[in-house]
Predict the 3D structure of the following.
Amino acid sequence: MGHDHSETVAGVTRIAAVHGVLPPHRHTQGDVTDMVARTCLPAETDRRVLDRIHANAGVRTRNTVLPLDRYGELDGFGAANDVFIGAAVDLGAEAVRGALRKAGLRPADVDLLMFTSVTGIAAPSVDARLVGRLGLRPDVKRLPVFGLGCVAGAAGVARLHDYLLGRPGQVAVLLSVELCSLTFQREDASPANLVATALFGDGAAAAVLVGGDHPAPADGPEVVDTRSRLYPDTGHVMGWDIRGSGFTVVLDPAVPDVVRRYLAEDVGGFLEQHGLKPKDIGRWVCHPGGPKVLEAVTDVLSLPEGALDVTWRSLAEVGNLSSSSVLHVLRDTMDRRRPEPGTPGLLMAMGPGFCCELVLLRW
């Protein structure tokens, strides 16, 4: 017998603000394709397969943390990770400052800072390095999270909601920094690497959540409930093989098939507990996994025309930013597609595991 989670929901938390940040170097998809051809394909290789993969990725422009001519010079994992740490702290500081400013809060108001990334590692963690720089309190709680990948934007919102239910007067911040370009593998012409280089970009985002008793005005929706789902026997479809050269992407063509097999049942069952059906959702805040994944989501949920427009536009403008992407889509929805108050929304992402995270929103 399934658990009825809806009985345990004690209150709501609110998304006070979301701020997205991109690194300074902006390129057309063709510029990135040329860089990948230079650094990933053996000399004299026919690049038509690469060109086709990049042309079909749904991405027009992307931002990278380094100029494109610098990627060929990165010598191994250590060099790439050093760039990650410095840039993650800089972009992270900018993202958190911007989100707090939008929320009308000060750094000293933050009770919990959760940091997530799957594109670099640091100890002390990036969140620790930000405490002094941002002026966070020395007793701020910190939670660095590695390994959730693309799902972490949604999972992070969900876990901050869990925390704030028990501390309804507090403020929690989720920071995501993903510098995917630093993981592109030189001299790797595998289909997985070519697909990854076609889709993924660099970016960061911060979301400020406040408990139900906190007086801060919230610009975003309420978080009503959350659902996590880990699928059986799918650990092989997405993730990293960690080698001397760094993070080597694992990206199985079966990812859209997993979505088609499970997602409708997950979403339907979750919404049913709240007396809702997919057709009642007024705003879909979906991670831009890639064209085939978005087509699978649209098909299995029978979404109306235009339901994922904000997601498709984000994919085209900045690429797939791993865990930061769904937060950029949430920000864009708040800025450009804000619905009537009371409208139900669903924030969702999928990632390594293979897993799904669903967050029920109310605008």
